[in-house]
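Human:
I keep going back and forth on a fold encoding question. Comparing notes only helps if you start from a blank page. Show me how you would write down a chain together with its backbone fold. Write it directly below this note and I will take it from there.

Assistant:
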Amino acid sequence: MAMVVQHQQHKEMSSNTSITKHQLDNGKYVRYTTEQVEALERVYAECPKPSSLRRQQLIRECPILSNIEPKQIKVWFQNRRCREKQRKESSRLQTVNKKLSAMNKLLMEENDRLQKQVSQLVCENGYMRQHMHTGSAANDASCDSVITTPQHSLRDANNPAGLLSIAEETLAEFLSKATGTAVDWVQMPGMKPGPDSVGIFAISQSCSGVAARACGLVSLEPTKIVEILKDRPSWFRDCRSLEVFTMFPAGNGGTIELVYMQTFAPTTLAPARDFWTLRYTTSLDNGSLVVCERSLSGSGAGPNPAAAAQFVRGEMLPSGYLIRPCEGGGSVIHIVDHLNLEAWSVPEVLRPLYESSKVVAQKMTIAALRYIRQIAQESSGEVVYGLGRQPAVLRTLSQRLSRGFNDAINGFTDDGWSLMNCDGAEDVIIAVNSTKNLNNSMNPSNSLSYLGGILCAKASMLFQNVPPAVLVRFLREHRSEWADFNVDAYSAASVKANSYNTYPGMRPTRFTGSQIIMPLGHTIEHEEMLEVVRLEGHALGQEDPFTSRDIHLLQLCNGIDENAVGACSELVFAPIDEMFPDDAPLVPSGFRIIPLDPKSGDGKNALATTHRTLDLTSSLDVAPATNNGSTDMSTCHTSRSVLTIAFQFPFENNLAESVATMARQYVRSVINSVQRVAMAISPSGLSPCVGPKPSPSSPEALTLAQWICQSYTYHLGADLLSSGSVVGESLLKDLWQHQDAILCCSLKSLPVFMFANQAGLDMLETTLVSLQDITLDKMFDDSGRKALVPEFAKIMQQGYTHLPGGICMSTMGRHITYEQAVAWKVLAADESTVHCLAFSFVNWSFV
């Protein structure tokens, strides 16, 4: 029978917020006094969900609750938790609503700007049509009067009045680019705006120089954003140094600064750039803050021209940042970067790198907005890092790795670098830095002092049809394919006190082939990852047979997103001690691959290489593939990229020549290995339409898939695939796309994997080629291996077995949980020969 609740109608009782009402099962209300509510609130603050014993104890300890039954107390806590949950959800929705409102306002402003741009283009188009149909001299004269812009007034950059005039003009030009129609902006390919995007990004393809624009919403106050953006070396990885030489007030609280900035060259094939600029910081009437900047005329202007002899003077056209505060907190930011990088000063093959607005967008514009959003999320506590490292420490480690790698590539003489035995014809450049202390460490006790210094072997080469992201991802995941463990051991010894004075080969070590990647942190969009890599090794000699020879590397990886247009891909690493401090000395080495040509069709013909599984062994060992008549070569995409390699080695003076010889030979060996890998992953060496599944033309793959499914049905009396496919390519496709991880291993004393579907490769975090180097025991720890041994006898006896849920490991050292697993014998066509063992891991996930 339904219970009817009588509501109180008295106004004085409904306004009494100190009394809480609760309904019992008998339909009556219970009123809690203010003292009772306070007592319950105190307990709730300590334990929101008390047990039955705790509630009974509460009644005994608080006399004011003696007339309340335990069941009433229980329901009060349930209601209190519900109200707390509703409050948090309401707060979250209000925050989301504010963000969406601000983003909607930003999109409306962008829409208005685009409408103005369209109207302007329509007018220009109409004028041009009229001009083409009118040939009179009068019209030509009037035309000239229309399009002629007034001459700039004479300005003197040597006095404050002249600089203020330049600053005001820079401000007007910058605002016309940021929010007006001074530049015809087009959407950045592959960067469509959306609720989860960082911001709205655009580039210019028609203005002089290279230009990029971004606008977005960040949860920081304008003054904090200005402070971050003006500290350009903290977020612009190519910035070598930035010095403010003059600063004076400019009225209305603004300041004018004369700034000298040096930037690194991205490769050994081109000189670095520097800029001499005026930077103007001011506020607008609507409360917005503006930081705008432009180059001052004269290539010889600036501090000490002799110090800038190693640089090519670049030009910064009116650029800057517009930061507008939002209602309820946060800011909307507009960023414009407009540069002339003097492409004439580099080899013709590299000029696309200096003429691409997409590259500037990725390196500067997008990087600035991403960095601000990263700081905002860290400040709000949304970012969680492992291994006890603070976000600021991880950012500093990433910056030091990147800066050390850039220093090695550029080899500036004012940093102490000089060429060693180079006549200009060497394919590998050897540079030496005789500086005694190379560490960037704030703690002198962690300094690395060498009797000789640091030696760097570096080289650059051009690639064609090699996806940079795929190549870097392979180099990261398969270090044993290109690296020499003994050379790594030599470099690693430099971080240990008094132990690096050995020479490669003096203490031979065997690399087990295992590497464990332990993540330290990543940016909010995972475009950059910082991690620790452990390489497992064992001594070959009789002495200290149980001594660990493991090597630890601090590694920075970025640019492995194949859809990021204009982004370079990097893999930079430095040897570290196992328990390295935050200010540990770093000597970075690594690879950088930069695309030279923009992708055609804005990604329409992008390489189909996402999640590609590379059969590297067959690609390297067989003859070049011949053209297949069924291949549509019109869909092939021709692209070029430049690869730069730099490896650094500490040395002593008495070993300088030996280390130089070793370094040159090692870099040449690495180049050969990388070229072989590049040939394997190049679409010109493989079918250009390689997808995420084995080739349907492979009879071995079709046969194995059929045996796996038939054997499963034979042993377990059920179908492995629910689609009903029985033969042919459809069966292979269904097996490849099966949601469970299916793996096959050989019947040997040490079972080795020989096949896995896509889920299996994702679970092991490997590729088909590397799968053949992974043994079954690598998936399990000691207890897992012991539990697996007795199951083999059961498999061989009855043909299958069910394994309980448990934990295994990927090749990257990540733990994986699975609900259950099934193992069965895979029989050949005659149903008497056991071809291999198959495993199916159900409902697996990373821990």
In short: The chain is about 35% helix and 25% strand. Residues 82 and 251 are 55 Å apart (CA to CA). The two ends are 49 Å apart (CA to CA).
